[in-house]
Amino acid sequence: MAVTTRQSLIDYCLRRLGQPLIEINVDEDQLSERVDDAIEFFQEYHFDGVEKVYLKKTIEQADIDNEYIGVIDPVISVLRVLPIPNFNAFQTGFFNEEYQMRLADLENFQSSTMINWAMSQTNFSLVSHLFSIQPTLLFNRKQNRMYLETDWTNKFTVGTILIIEAYRSLDPDTWPEVYNDMFLKKYLTALIKRQWGSNLSKYEGVQLPSGVTLNGKQIYDEAIEEINKIEEEMSLRYELPIDGLIG
Q1: Could you say which DSSP state residue 202 is in?
Q2: Is residue 175 part of a domain?
Q3: pTM of the predicted model as reported, rounded to 2 decimal places
Q4: Which residues pair with 53 in a beta bridge?
Q5: Domain that holds residue 33
Q6: Of 99, 100, 101, 179, most Cβ neighbours within 10 A?
Q7: pLDDT at 88 over 50
């Protein structure tokens, strides 16, 4: 049965732990908090927990005055900022280098080969890389601010359009398939088991009328071992390369 809601995910994990045959001594608020922990970990480290997006930002006077751009959650990392080039000769002038390059490209497209065009683009890219200084990008997801180390007053004007390349975490309520992820279900089950063992540890050694002795420490230790294995598996199999996220 596919898990498509928050509650069905909780019910699934409780059944994996033995409910209703075994009473799982975990409070509803504790269950909800463990779900939040599991989803946050999934979004932070699993490659299926995020999506690459391109966000359009029109510069306002407040951005120039503040010298930063407010980035709204759930963006977790900003890769780069892409300015939109203006190829309109009447607005930027015929001496604009990008306009001249595109104008020269039209003649190359009429030939039977694109080798010269490809080589010209490679050379232009190399020159741009060597002589163009890109502003340093600083982003902290706790501040939700993207700083560009540049002269904002001279670099930007009101109405300038930027494209922000970023990673954004997936909202399970919007994309319910997240709830059915195999890793998330396994990880949440281990978190609930750890909470269960922690709750029972205060009654360690207490014998029930049925003769059963509570052993919360064993449940807790088993959960810790399972969590460590799952998190190690995450780093080896599901985590994006370090170079993939900047911010």
Answers
A1: G
A2: no
A3: 0.73
A4: 166
A5: 6-46+181-244
A6: 179
A7: no
